[in-house]
Each structure stands twice: as structure tokens, then as C-alpha cells.
Amino acid sequence: MSKLKLWENYQLVGQNRLAPRSHFDTHFVDDPEHLRNGQLLNGTWQFKFLAAPEYAPQDFAAPDFDDQGWAAIPVPSNWQLQGYGKMHYSDLWYNFPIIPPHVPSENPTGLYRRTFEVARIDPNEQYLLNFDGVDSAFQLFMNGHEVGYSKGARLTSEFDVTPYLQAGTNTVALLVVQWSDGTYLEDQDMWWLSGLFRDVHFFSRPKLGLYDLQVRTYLQPTPHTAELVVTPTFTGAADRSVTYRLTDGKTTLFEKTLTGDQSLDETVADIVPWSAERPQLYDLQLTVHVAGQPLEVVHQKVGFRQIEVVGKTFRVNGQAIKLKGVNMHDYSPTAGRVMTRADFRQNILLMKRHNINAIRTAHYPKAPFFYDLCDELGMYVIDETDLECHGFELTNRYDWISDDPKWQLAYVDRMKRTVQRDKNHPSIIMWSLGNESAFGDNFRAMAAYCKTVDPTRLVHYEGDFEAEVSDVYSTMYTWLEHETKLTMNQILEKTQKPHILCEYAHSMGNGPGNLKEYQDLFYGHDELQGGFIWEWFDQGIATQAGDQTYYRYGGDFGDEPNNANFCIDGLIRPDGRPSTALTEVKKTFEPFQMTLVDRATRQIRVINRLDFLTSDDYTFDYVLEDNGQVVAHGPVTVPTIAPREAAVIKLTADLPELTADHLYTLHLRTKQTTATPWADQGAVVSQTSLTLQRPVVRLHHARQQAITVQEDAVTLTLTAGANQYRFDKVQGSLTLTHAGQPVIQDGLRMNFWRAPIDNDMEILDDYYHKYFMNLWHESALDTTLTAEEHGDYRVTVEKLVGTTNSGWYYAITQTYTIHEDGSFDFAVDGTASGKRDCAPAMLPRIGVALALPQPYQRVTYRGLGPTENYVDSHQAAYLGVFETTVDDLFVDYVKPQENGNHMDTDRVTLQDGQHQIDVQMTTPLNFSVANYADATLEAAKHTVDLRPDDTVSLYLDFKQNGLGTNSCGQNQLQKYRCKFDDFHFGFNFNVRDRG
Ligand code: GAL
Ligand code: MG
């Protein structure tokens, strides 16, 4: 092989990097509150951006090098977000040819410099520089001396700088390259971002002190008893002793002194095990003595918990838990992959408040403080190492380097650094070998490493398709139903190991559908231990356009090739606001599920879906709404329900007498009895909403002034009070005016199209180019008038409706029955006709679209709300009466698309202040109303492209197709599809003055 450059030398995993070790705090004995000689070297550094590392000035690291002309850059940061290099998003493509380990000679490079002060050099201390993330490889210099070299963009690197350090001012310099041989192992689906993007830490440790420690816990058969094993590692020979003291913050559970070469092995009674539901932590204090003199105090959090595989399940503390997880990247809308401890806390809190209990660190380890937070707040973690070589999939040699022994060191080194740094976190239950890199000997070696060093945790790797070394059978986006693809049912038949979905429910745009179907399946089988939704963040880049912020995605930076908005697939929007999907997640993952067993006797079944806590930690209550107004509330008594058990309770509350024709919604809520570290006392964790009484829509039409009729060759005009109906007999269309003002123009158009959702992306090409689903045409056959009873008139319109060049079409009969009170009943029959077998498998929707005057902005509806809902995603919605506005009903997806549907609606009122439109359905329909017509949404790439239309679009749909999650995974389930079938629906429409 030709000569390798330093940053292409894949068999060199680092130079002078210290052996990886756990992250812990060491304190001076007489100053236990403060870190030892620590300073964060975050802040402003001097920065020089180059096209390749070779262009670096020879002496750029020298203390006296003149960096005056350099720019200032914040650390941590990704340089692309600071205006250097190129923004680029791709899913699996490498940005360069696959000629491992070679990378392009044009290799964006950042030179970094800064100084820091050290008051005094203590000869007994070792001085360290610690980098938690430098993307991708770097050389480190101290006071002009080369200290070492490291790679592994999202792994910690630590160096001993003692030999180069001086009292006073010290100069630290780095050369960071964007591309290295490491990049071949860092092909995750995300923005390509570089630089010092995590904390830089300078600190010291005593040379004779603790270098590392390993904490293991084993639960004992005796309840509340555990074995604690702690193995210390020291550097330098000395006569040492270690005093171990375990406290729960108040009381000491034990204290014991051992020599430095011994391991602690202590049985501890009266402990509370750690779980995500009750993340009980203990403080282990280690005081190290050398020759009888105290040297340092180290604090280590301990959570007692045990993981083991029993049959086809894995158990945490004896329980075959369910993972209700999400995949989480590092992400900031403004800073790229820079996340602070506060950012992580905020996000983990939001997860906890939505009943999420697990995180997969997709697809690389996070900064150490992330794991501290998971320990503290209670999250099961799959800690995935920084390894993905997805681009190889397209070379027909997916395992090209994964099975090449020459790359083994590089693979195992990544795993080693992950395990060694993170091994003492109770939150971590599995080590993940990486993502999407095929399988081969290098993975076998990584798994063996994990098992040797840490047999207390499970090994995870999805790419190990047959679960040869993975302790869990892990799959992604497995289908619920499909004729040829692997389905969940087949997994159940074949699996010999516990199964998890390391990714599912791809949350791109509107969706995912089917969360409930997956969850029901998990609950039904112990060996299905849940999964991790893809993903937490919508990874858009905040961009300012005037006073509007919008979010850019792949392709918006001229980045080629790119995967467009495939990075906008999270449960929270780029600005951190929860999506509808997150509300669905909270409901789907709720700890207490309730169902009505018997309406008459008000019996309710309560299932405790928790793994460890009983219902005693929660308080239950009810809230009764009468037409959307709270009219009663009170406690609900629930007996002790053990974890994963159920009970039937009787609702004894004295509810008020129900008024006829009102909608009564009963909310049964579960609240936290006490505050937890993640939520306040009284926080609602579950809510089930039951319809106690649903009114029937009864239409009454008062006899008023007789309707007058005029007809000529092409128009038919009927006048009922202030409402005038004008039918164009050529087009079979209606114009309705009220007191001379237009209300409906060009109605009532059949509508089978919707603004495409991301989950339709696999069928869009056919929709546009084969079925022409966006191009509908009407052939009006006949418009006839008949006089009916009670002075009513009926206009019947017959038409054929089909798309461009299609032989399949609907034969449509629309009837408008116009009443003397000015309202009309609309009814439509559609008969699927023509070459039916040429029709698509799914229609986006079946309904009518009305363009109403712009001032009708106030909306009241009786239907499923308040969140948007679709046939396969409506767990969080309930039947209620909701008052809102057209703008508030709009859901602003980063890439605009169909949104804001409300199922099961039997009444919609729109007001403009003086007038009111009432739409009533004797059989409920879907409705949505927007200031952006579907065509407006469809044309927009970003929210900033949207301008409100000059009409309000009202959509009344017999059916809306389900959402599915086919942007990655299951498409719309058969039962949720809107098919090319016959249909019939209708409603009553009226417009009147508000009196
Ligand atoms: C998976 C992959 C993720 C992401 C996702 C689609 O195959 O592991 O990294 O690419 O698909 O968003
Ligand atoms: Mg990938």
C-alpha cells in the first residue's frame, strides 16, 4: 500500500493517549468541595481554517507563534456552524470515494490555539488534558511540544501534559482534520460536522492516586440486599489504603478500609435498587491514603441493579422490563452537535414527562454528564459506540472493513474506550457495538471485549442479524404486516433471545402511525421488550428570514448529494417544542391504562404497566367536561395494583345529572402523589378520556319564506332568505352567497388528494407520475332540480371524476337539499368505476374541499381533539368540544405537509364576527380547516415559504388515509387504508347572521 498519512493510518488508534478510564471527580482531602486543579478550557480560542493539514505553518503550535491574524472561535463548537467549511447532510453516503483508509487531500482543517494559566506545578500531581469530542482526528501540542494524536470523533481522549507544563502561561494548540481513516467508521446519518465540539478540560490527579475504578453490583435473593464490588486501579507503586464509605446522602450504610491492591466486596442491606422508575443513587466515597497520609477523596455514584438473561427475556432486577425508548443524537438547531449539560437535562426531563424510560445513544457515546443525568433521572441506556460504516452497503462488500482483521484494532479500540469510560453508570444496561456496519470478525472481537471486561451488561448490535454475539435479537423498523418482509410475528416465531426494536416508529413529518399496535404487541409478549423510537430531535438548522425563523435541511446549503429532510424525523421540533407524535407517545407509554368494562355500573379496568412501582405511588382522579367545560372533578379510589397487574374498579363519584344533547367527556387521570426529580407533585402521567354521553345530531328546519327558483340554459338559482344558491349546470358546481357576500365558490369539489406527508414518500412517485393523483378532472353529466316536501328543493348533480390518463374513476352523485331556513343538506355517493384494478392501493383521502372567505377564523368543533389525529394515530385525542382558531389548528411541520385533521367530528362552526357557518353531520366525518390550501402546503419546502391564502380551506372527509411510518418502515396497515371503494357521506351546511 502507498504511504499513509498520519490521519490515514488506521492501524494507529492514537499516540500517547492515556488508557481509557472511568470519569470521576477527584478532590483534595482538605478541600472536598472543589475539583482538583481543574479548569474548563472552553471559551474563545484562536482559529485558523485551512484546506488541508499540510498547509499548517510549521511552528503554529509554538508559544511565540503570532496568531494575531487568526479568527476567534468558541469552544465547544462545530466549525461549520461558525462559518467555516461546508454544511452537508447525508444519510449513508460518504462524502468521498471509498478507498479505505484514504481520504481526500482536500481535507478541511482547523488549527486551534489558546493559553491558560497554571499558578504552580505540584511535583506530586499528574496534569491532564481531556477532550470529550473532537471531530474527527487531531494532534495535540503543549507549549510547542507535540503531546500526541487521537481520533474517534465522539470518544474521550486524555493526555498527560505534565512534562510540557510550566508555572504561568501555557499554550495549547491542536490541529484537527475533518477527514481521517476514522471517518470510515463514522458514517452516521447526520450532518457532517467538525471541530472541538465538546468540553476541553484541564485538571490534575495525584500521581499515586486512583487512576480508575470499576463498580459492580449484584442483587441478592434476600430483598433489599446487594453485593457491591469495587476494583480500584492505581498508578505508581505505594503503600496505599482505601477507605470506602457508602451513604444514601444522610446515613452511612458501611465504611471499610482495605489496602490498595484489594477489591471491595461488600454485602449491603437495606438498599433500594436502582431502576428508571426509582433511580435511587448512593454516594460511594473513597479516601485514598498513601503511607497513612490522606491523598485524595473520590466520589462515585452507585446504583444497585442487576441485568441478566433468563430464557427469552432479559431482566433488570428480576423483571423483564419494557423499554419505552427513543434514539437520541447530539443536536442543537444553532450549534450543530454541541449540547450542554443543561440541554441534556431539559431533554431528559421532557422525555421523562412523556413516559419515556430509555435512550439509545444513537450512534455514538455522549459527553460524560449525559450518563450522570440518566443515572439521576432514571433512564435505561443503550450506550452505543462511535461506529458506523453504512456507505459500504452500496459497494457489495458491506463487511469490507468490518471483517478485515487489519481494522480490528480500530474497531475494538472504540468499544474499549466506550466501556472503560462509562462502565460505572447504573443507567447503562447494554453496550452497543455500533450501527449499520454489516457483521464480521471485528464485531465478534468487540463483543468478546465487552463480555470479558464487563459481563454484567448485555451486548447489543442490530447488524448481527442472527444474534450470534448480541445478547438481544435487535431489529429495526420491523413491519407489522407484509407479504415478503420480516414481520413482528415472524420474529416471535423465530427468536431464541429477547427482542428489541433498536429503531422503530420513524417520526418524520406527520406521524408515526401504529404506535399503539407496536405497544400492544410488546405488552402481549414478555420476549418483546420494547424499542426505541427514531428519533428524538428534528435536526433542522435554524435560519433567520426577516423576523421568521425556519429550519434548513439537506440540500439547502448546496450540499450534494443529500438526503433532504430525512434528518427532520424527531419527536420534538428543532426549537424543542413537542410534536403531536410526542403527545401520542406519552399516551401510548402511559403507566396506567384504563378501559371501560361496563358503562352502566361504571366499572373500569386499570392496568399497571410499570415494572417496579405499585399504584400506591400515584393518585387517581376524574374530571368531567360538559360540552368542553369542566363541571365536576374529584378523587377516584384505586386499590394497590402491583406492577404489571390489573384491577377492576367501580367509579363511585357522584356525577351530576346529564343534560340531553350535551357531550360529556370523563377524564380519568393518574398523577404523581409526590414530586420526583423529573416532575412536580400532581403531574399527570396518564389520562384516559371516556365519552359518557354523545349527543345525536338532529336537524330541524323551520319553515320560512318560500324558496324562489330561477333557471336558464346554464344556471339554476335558488333563493332561501338571505342565502342564494347558484348552480352552474355546465360544471355541476355551486356558488353560495349570503346577503350578497360570497360564502362558497366553485363548490363542492370532490377531493381525493392531500399535501403529501413524508410517510407517503415511497408512493409519491407513483402518485405523481403513474396515477396523477394530484390532477383530477370532473365531467358533469347532469344537473336536475326537483321540488320536495316542506318547501324544500333538491338539486342533483351527476358527474364522473377521475385523474389524468386513468381508466379508473368515481361515478359521483351529489345532492343538495335546500331548506327554507337557508341551509342545505349535502349528500354524495361515489361508485368506484372503470378499470378498477388500475387504481392505486390507497387514496390519500375521500372528501370535499370548500374555499370559504378569509375572515372566518374562529372555529368551534365537536370531534376528536385537541391534537390533530388520524386513523392510526389518535391515542391522545378525545371527543370534546373545542374552541380555537384556524391558525391554532395548523401544525407547522418543518417541511409543510398535510396536518391538522380531526376525526369523528359531527359539528364545526366558523365565525367571522358577524356571520356564522354551521356544519353538522349526522354521521361524523374528518375535518380540517386551514389558511393554507393543500396546494399551498405542497408547494412549500419550508415554513417560511408559506403565505396565507386569501380563502380559508375547509376539508370534510369521509376518510383520510392512515399515516403509517413508511418514511422508514411499516406503511399504512390494511385496516387503516383509504381504498378506492364506494362511499357515501354528507352534512348540513348553513350560513347566517350572528344574532
Ligand atoms: C436507520 C439508521 C438511522 C437513521 C434511520 C432513518 O436505518 O440506523 O441512523 O438513518 O434509519 O432515519
Ligand atoms: Mg445509517
Automatic annotation (TrEMBL):
InterPro entries: B-gal_small/dom_5 (IPR004199), Bact_Beta-galactosidase (IPR050347), Beta-gal/glucu_dom_sf (IPR036156), Gal_mutarotase_sf_dom (IPR011013), Galactose-bd-like_sf (IPR008979), GH (IPR017853), GH-type_carb-bd (IPR014718), Glyco_hydro_2 (IPR006101). Signal peptide: none annotated. Residues 717-990 form the Beta galactosidase small chain/ domain. It holds the Pfam family LacZ_4. Its EC number is 3.2.1.23. It catalyses: Hydrolysis of terminal non-reducing beta-D-galactose residues in beta-D-galactosides. Belongs to the glycosyl hydrolase 2 family. This is Beta-galactosidase. It comes from Levilactobacillus spicheri.
